[in-house]
Amino acid sequence: MGFVSRFTTEVTPDDLGRRATLRIQLPDGRFRDIVGVLEAWQNGVIMVRRRDGSVIEVIADDVVGSRIIPQQPPRRRGRADTDVPDGTGG
Questions:
Q1: Tens-digit pLDDT string for the chain (90 aa)
Q2: Helix, coil or strand: residue 3
Q3: Collapsing DSSP states into helix, strand and coil, what is residue 53?
Q4: What is the CATH number of domain 13-68?
Q5: Would residue 16 be called left, alpha or beta, if left means φ above 0 and alpha means ψ between -120 and 50 degrees?
């Protein structure tokens, strides 16, 4: 027997402000994952703020699986002690 995917839903309106992934089923039967911070959940519509700042509206009835995920760590900047030529020739 092959791998069987199980969808679970653990995100609730009480999770506003937390980062989550929502798996929605598209009208053609395919699936799409949306990752971001839960901004609002009203009248069956979930507002999710993505990393780029855009806000996506998701119909709650379209969500077939969801879970809370860790907050995104801050972006790293390049290290100051990397091998960058300093012009001294040494």
A1: 555 556 677 899 999 999 999 999 999 999 999 999 999 999 999 999 999 999 999 999 999 999 999 887 777 776 655 555 555 555
A2: coil
A3: coil
A4: 2.30.30.100
A5: beta
